Each structure stands twice: as C-alpha cells, then as structure tokens.
Amino acid sequence: MKIRIKLLAHYQQYLPPDCSSSSYEVEVPPDVRVEEVLAGLPVPSEESVVLVNGRTPQPGQTLREGDVLCLFPAIGGG
Amino acid sequence: MYGWNSRILRVNLTTGETRVEEVDPRVARDFIGGRGWAIRYLYDEMDPRVDPLAPENKLVFATGPLTATPVPTGNRYMVVTKSPLTGALSCSNSGGFFPTEMKRTGFDLFIFEGKAERPVYLWVNDDRVEIRPADHIWGRTVFETEDMLRAETDPRARVACIGPAGERRAPIAAIINEKHRAAARSGVGAVMGSKNLKAVVVRGTRRIPLAHPDELKALSDQVVEEVKQAVAAGKSTLRIYGTAYVPPVTNELGILPTYNFRTGVFAGAEAISGRALSQKYLIRAKACYGCPIACGRLTRVEDPIFGGEGEGPEYETIGALGSACGVDNLAAITKANYICNELGLDTISAGMTIACAMEMYELGLIPESDIGRPLRFGDAEAVVEMVRLAGLREGFGDLIAQGSYRLASHYGHPEFSMSAKKQEFPAYDPRGAKGMGLLYATSNIGASHMAGDTAYMEVFGVPKKVDPLSWEDKPRLVKYFEDIFTIVDAAGLCVFLSIRYLFEPTYNVEPVRISRLMEYATGAGYDEETLLKAGERVYNLERMFLVRAGFSRADDTLPPRMLYEPMPEGPAKGHVVELDRMLPEYYRLRGWDENGVPTAEKLAELGLL
Ligand code: SF4
Fold first, then answer.
1. Which of B239, B288, B297, B499 to mutate to test the pocket of ligand 1 (most atoms within 8 A of CB)?
2. Under an 8 A CB cutoff, do B427 and A78 touch?
3. Most CB atoms closer than 10 Å: which of B393, B397, B398, B538?
4. CB–CB of B582/B609 below 8 Å?
5. B313 in contact with A at a CB cutoff of 8 Å?
C-alpha cells in the first residue's frame, strides 16, 4: 500500500532530490506500524514530532493506505 | 545584593522629579525581578480600578536579575502597567539590546508616574538622569525617533519609543526598541503616549555584580556550547528559518488561524513559511544581545508595491496579517510588518482585528462606505493599507486601532472578535490545542502565547509531545507553564532558549538549570522549589490585581466560536474548547475559589497576606 511522508522545517533537506513539494509517496507493507516506517527514514525521529494525518499517533498504531506521516523537529517557538 | 542592581528609578512626569530608591532584599528574592517586582510595586501603590490612560496609572520598565549577565539570552525587559486594551495587566516582553543597556545604567526598574505637560523623553546615562523636551520628535515615526535621539544623546545609546499609534493612544500600540523589537501587546504604547513620554534613551556602562561569577560563567558556557553544536549540525530550526518555520506545522495540525478563525487549515501555508522567507527575502539571521540562537530575520523585499527593508516577520505576525486575513502574499505580510514597526503597532492585534473586520464586511455587517473600500479576505493590498491607517488612527483605521473587540462591538457583534479579555488571540486555534484555550481564557494579560505557551508541548513536542486534542491533562499543564513562563520573564531571559535548555526535559520541565543560574547570579538562596514558589507567588499577585480591578470568573472565557462552533475541517475537525470542564479543575489546582479568586489559604501559603 502507499502512504505519504511529509517533512517540515529543516527536515525538508531529507526530501528526495526530485521532490518539489513537502511530501512524497512510499510503498509500505499493509498494516505497517508507525515505528517501523520511522526506522527506515533518514530523519532523527527521536528528536521529532510525529503526526499521522495531523494527529498524535498511539503507541503501536498501524498505518492505512493514503495516510500522511508527518515529521518535524521538536523545537518550540512562535 | 548581587544579580540585581537593587535600585529603582522613579520618574514623576507631572512634577519633573526623579528619585532613586533601594529595594528591600526580601522583596527582591520573593518576587524575582522584572515582571515580579513590577507587580509588587503596582499592587502596593496603585488603585487597579484607575483609567489606564489617566495620569494615575503607572508604567514600569523592568529588567530581571539575569538581564545583562553572561547567561545566554539575558536580554529581556518587561513593560508592566494597567492595559488600555484589556483593563487587566499588561506584561509585554522585548529583547534586542535596549534591556541590557538599561540594566547597565545601574537601575533594575524605571517607574513612570503622572503625565508630562509637554512631550518629553527620558535620557539615562549611567547615573545622570534627565527629562528632556520631545516637542521636536512628537509625530515622528519609530525609525526617525530612534535616529534623531541617538544623534542628540549618544550614538551608542539604545532607544525604546512609541510611534504615531502610541501618541494617539491606540489601545493596540506597542513600544519599540532598536526599530524592530517590540514590547508589543496590550497597548503599552498608548500608556506611554498618555503620559506624553515619547521615548526612553539609555546608555549604561556598569557591570552587574554576581554572587558566584565563575559558576555562572561555566554553566552559561555549557549552554552556549550546546546551542552552538545544534547550530553547527544544522539542527537549529530557529536559526535556519526563524519562527516563520511554524505555519506549515500548525497547518498540519489544523490550527493555523485562517479567515478570522473560521478554520485552521490554510491552502497558502507553504507560501508564507520560513522556507519561502529564506528563499525570497532573507538577508541574514539576527540575534538579540548574548543569544547563540539568532532567530531574528533581517529581510529585504524588492517589490514595486510592497518593497522595503527591516526585520521580520515572525510566526505570530504571519498568522495574524497573513492566514487570519486569508493572505498568502509574503511580500505584503512583510511590508505590513515593517509598517507596524514604523508606526508602533502590535502586529498580532492589528492583523487579527483586520481579519475580524474582513469577516464582518463579507457578512454585510460593516458597510463599505465606513471602510472606504472593499475589505475581503485575501486582499493583500487592503491589509497593508489598513495597517497604515490604524497606525495613524485615520479613517477606518481609527476603529482597527482600538482592537477587534471594540470594532466588532461598535457594529453590534462582539462575537466576531477572536479575543479573550478583549486581547486578540495569537496564532494557534485553541480548538485544536486545548491547553492554549484554557490559557487564553485565564491569562492575567488576556489571550497571549507569552503567558504560558503550552504549545511547547501540544504542538512542538518540547520537552515531550502531548496530545493537543485532549483536555483532561491540560489544567495542570497550563498552571505549570504559566508559573515557569513567569520565572523566565521575571529573570530577564528569552523563553525560546530557556524552556529548551534551562529546564530538565521531563514532563514537568523542572527548573534545574535556571534555578542554579539564579542562585549563581544572586546568592539569595534559590533552589528549584523556592523558584517555582516565587513564580507562583508572582502569578497570584497579578491575579489579585485583576480581582481588585473587578475581574472574575465571567471574564475567564472565550468567544462563542471557540466554545460552540466545531472546527469545520482538518485534523481538529469537530472539536471545540471544553472550557467548562477544564476551568474548575484549573481553579482547584491554583488554590482559587469557584469564582477564580485566590483563597486566603493560598495567599497565606505564598506569603501574600
Ligand atoms: S532566540 Fe530569538 S528572540 Fe530569543 S534572544 Fe535569541 S534572537 Fe532574541
């Protein structure tokens, strides 16, 4: 199944070179857990805020077709 | 004493007299400094029911014990007074270089009383204090005032002043230092204007005495090193993009204020982001005194209509003058920001008030003949024009200059004002960040992110992410953040660095390093517990000021849109702020009665009886 990875703030440096927006599509196994996808990303996810479709994921949450997994660095400000 | 100068400069503008006073060491310790000292003096000396623009109101400029020390970001001052916007307290914070220079004159606080007969400015050059005529600069913009005053005092002097907005007593007028740094909120500029005080100019060369200078320097160096490493590793978002990195983040959570908070999702979020700002207009990052982060943005816009050069915009400015008004034109937002600085306006209240007027215009509640032009969401030119008119209080700008509550009430519909205690919301829709909802409703200064920004945890995951949509855990979080923000403000530090580096990253963000730094600076006996207690003490005394001014539970509320109109779309879809459920628990945790009044037991515990 396909999901989208969205990277914000300076994590956009980790976007694929041909990516013109802030997100890209990846193929993942059905019922994959959020943690499993994070482990395969080049982003320091332990210092990040992780959202699934804009919401806070539960521990062990699995993903569904079309979900947007968003990461940005955990830094306050504004 | 150490850390503090322990001296206050009292300036009576009516008589032209100035007086130097010593500070009682117990008051110094128990109320920390800055915002804490200011409320101690205001509470003791002033009737909280006075008209904010009358000579009886007092205006306090307050630095903290860590201001102008080697502690990184020791560059803050607070302006504390009774607010003409809210009728409650103003505690407006600014950094840059003015506060450090002020503290180095050898005074911690300036207290202004009365009203000058003619326009004046205060010139403090170390011990030499002069009230000088300002007729020749009255009417000038902030930029002109700063240049003229440095030329006629000392080129190394620092200036905090008002522009035309403050002179004309606009309830959303700011006090600006170094042309682009603002003690922006709650109409502090109008209070200065009401006293005929155009500017405060300082030049200070004194060193701040420290109790344990070596320990203070070692811990400060360690913090600076940590920040520098993050910057060098390309991990400091604030350095790379400034706070402007935030619009896509809050948009992802569905809480980026859009169309006067009708929704929290904005299609133009990327166009108004830090990335766009860096690509198009950034000259370089800029730091306040002693700050290794440098979140400030020096910018230039080349554009036939919106061209200019200055600093900003910050996230809050982008949310208010941009998405809230449906504007995705970053050049126009930046231009409107420059004009606010030049004329001395709060960008948040200005933008949010224009957004309110846009909604009411589109609904036919404000006739076009009153405005003199159409005022639709998304009209970038209109935003720039309205800001200019507001700064000068001309035409329809006179209503905008009074803030959204008075504007919406003028047309019979106060419910379109997205404000708490009449102060406009900052750029987080609280329906999708419930702690922010409780904070806006209860804050002593009206809606503000600077009063105890739970977005740190709800949005940014610092030090730990909590679910922004849950409300059950928020009363505790709000109380805690209000108290620790009070400590940071009173100490004279910037919250950006402090919350992340000076508190331990547990759920409670324990004040470990900041209490050590306070102790190294003052030697007054601070530890984590006494410092937290002091923060709570200051917060409660501020609350007592509000109680005496006539505020009660009925004022701890939010506009009906936040309480009854569910968010229409996005991740926060279907949510409102569960204020009724959070408020009693918050009062209980605070030790306040069901009307939001601190109980005698609580006041006794804090030594406030
Ligand atoms: S983080 Fe930004 S606002 Fe805070 S002191 Fe540094 S430059 Fe100034």
1. B288
2. yes
3. B538
4. no
5. no
Range of the domain at B447: 430-605
Q: What is the pLDDT of residues B193-229, one digit of tens each?
A: 999 999 999 999 999 999 999 999 999 999 999 999 9
The rounded mean pLDDT for chain B is: 97
Same domain, B250 and B269: yes
Q: Is position A78 within any domain?
A: no
Query: Is A78 within 8 Å of B236 when comparing Cβ atoms?
Result: no
Identify whether residues B399 and B435 lie together within a single domain.
Answer: no
CATH number for the domain spanning A62: value is 3.10.20.30
- Residue A9, in any domain of the structure: yes
3-state secondary structure of A72: strand
pLDDT in tens, B57-97: 999 999 999 999 999 999 999 999 999 999 999 999 999 99
In this structure, what CATH number is given to the domain that contains residue B72?
3.60.9.10
Nearest CA in chain B to A54: B253
CA dihedral B400, B403, B406, B407 (to 10 degrees): 30
Query: Are B321 and B399 contained in the same domain?
Result: yes
- The CATH number linked to B550 is 1.10.599.10
Considering only CB atoms, B295 lies closest to which of A10, A74, A77, namely: A77
Q: Check if B268 contacts A (Cβ < 8 Å).
A: no
The answer to whether residue A49 sits within a structural domain is yes
Cβ burial B216-248 (10 Å sphere, 16+ → b, else e): beebbeebbeebeebbeeeebbbbbbbbbbbbb
Q: How many domains is chain B partitioned into structurally?
A: 3
Which chain A residue has its CA at the smallest distance from B231's CA? A10
B314 near A CB under 8 A = yes
Beta strands at B59-63 and B77-82: parallel, antiparallel or unpaired: antiparallel
pTM: 0.98
**How far from B478 is each of A74, B29, B456, B589, CA to CA, in Å?**
19, 24, 11, 10
Verify that B374 and B453 share a domain, yes or no: no
* B445 and B415 inside one domain: no
Is B279 an interface residue toward A (CB < 8 Å)? Answer: no
Ligand 1, closest atom to CA B290? 5
Q: How large is the ipTM? A: 0.96
Range of the domain at A37: 2-73
Cβ contacts of A50 on chain B, cutoff 8 Å:
465
Measured in Å, residue B287 CA sits from the centre of ligand 1 at 6
Q: Is A14 inside any structural domain?
A: yes
Residue B1 lies inside a defined structural domain of this protein: no
Exposure string of B126-155, with b = 16+ CB inside 10 Å and e = fewer, is: eeebebeebeebbebbbbebbebbbeebee
Q: Per the CB < 8 Å rule, is A10 touching B245?
A: yes
Q: Which residue of B has its CA nearest to A49?
A: B461
How far off is chain B from A49, nearest CA to CA, in Å? 6
Closest CA to B39 of B565, B542, B577: B542
